[in-house]
Automatic annotation (TrEMBL):
<dbReference type="GO" id="GO:0006352">
    <property type="term" value="P:DNA-templated transcription initiation"/>
</dbReference>
<feature type="domain" description="RNA polymerase sigma-70 region 2">
    <location>
        <begin position="17"/>
        <end position="77"/>
    </location>
</feature>
<dbReference type="Pfam" id="PF08281">
    <property type="entry name" value="Sigma70_r4_2"/>
</dbReference>
<dbReference type="InterPro" id="IPR014284">
    <property type="entry name" value="RNA_pol_sigma-70_dom"/>
</dbReference>
<keyword id="KW-0805">Transcription regulation</keyword>
<keyword id="KW-0804">Transcription</keyword>
<feature type="domain" description="RNA polymerase sigma factor 70 region 4 type 2">
    <location>
        <begin position="106"/>
        <end position="152"/>
    </location>
</feature>
<protein>
    <submittedName>
        <fullName>Sigma-70 family RNA polymerase sigma factor</fullName>
    </submittedName>
</protein>
<dbReference type="GO" id="GO:0003677">
    <property type="term" value="F:DNA binding"/>
</dbReference>
<comment type="similarity">
    <text>Belongs to the sigma-70 factor family. ECF subfamily.</text>
</comment>
<dbReference type="InterPro" id="IPR013325">
    <property type="entry name" value="RNA_pol_sigma_r2"/>
</dbReference>
<dbReference type="InterPro" id="IPR013324">
    <property type="entry name" value="RNA_pol_sigma_r3/r4-like"/>
</dbReference>
<dbReference type="InterPro" id="IPR039425">
    <property type="entry name" value="RNA_pol_sigma-70-like"/>
</dbReference>
<dbReference type="InterPro" id="IPR013249">
    <property type="entry name" value="RNA_pol_sigma70_r4_t2"/>
</dbReference>
<dbReference type="Pfam" id="PF04542">
    <property type="entry name" value="Sigma70_r2"/>
</dbReference>
<dbReference type="GO" id="GO:0016987">
    <property type="term" value="F:sigma factor activity"/>
</dbReference>
<dbReference type="InterPro" id="IPR036388">
    <property type="entry name" value="WH-like_DNA-bd_sf"/>
</dbReference>
Length: 162
């Protein structure tokens, strides 16, 4: 069920409710574990509450939340604590087994490829929108998307050839 659109001046509860799935899925796709995704989810909405930014449109708010989520994942990756730890294998159970299999295979992609794949296919963002959010050239995003598809194809081929 698609939630109805928010106005730019909606209350925080509605914003959290509306964007919680998107933020959590993006955080989980980047971090690969539930505890880090939970921390990022909390940090993103805490920043939203503390800064209470003004947005010109819903697309602007969505882009801001995606950008902050990506920044929070990069902050965790860059921390010395994170570099010295090994993640536990957490999995999100999807309703369809194909979604579970695909999610498992997506986790094998490098971090930069997971972000563009997630934003393009799960959030339905265009290459231009992704390039603005990730602060990269559209050609770079297009190249990463192509390489991610190629890498995913190789991964899937390896798994089904065995």
């Amino acid at each position: 069920m698609e939630p109805e659109s928010l106005r730019t001046d909606d209350c925080i509860d509605n914003v959290v409710r509306f964007y919680s799935d998107m933020v959590y899925r993006l955080a989980f796709s980047q971090m690969r574990n539930k505890s880090d995704a939970d921390d990022i989810f909390q940090e993103v909405f805490l920043r939203y509450i503390n800064k209470h930014p003004h947005f010109e449109s819903e697309e602007h708010r969505k882009a801001w939340l995606i950008r902050v989520t990506i920044n929070c994942t990069k902050k965790i990756w860059a921390s010395s604590w994170s570099k010295k730890t090994a993640p536990l294998d957490d999995t999100i159970i999807f309703e369809l087994s194909e979604e579970n299999d695909l999610n498992y295979e997506l986790q094998k992609l490098p971090k930069k490829y997971r972000a563009v794949i997630h934003l393009f296919y799960y959030e339905d963002l265009s290459i231009t929108e992704i390039s603005e959010i990730l602060k990269q050239k559209p050609s770079t995003v297009r190249t990463q998307l192509t390489r991610a598809r190629r890498k995913l194809k190789e991964i899937l081929k390896e798994d089904y050839d065995v």
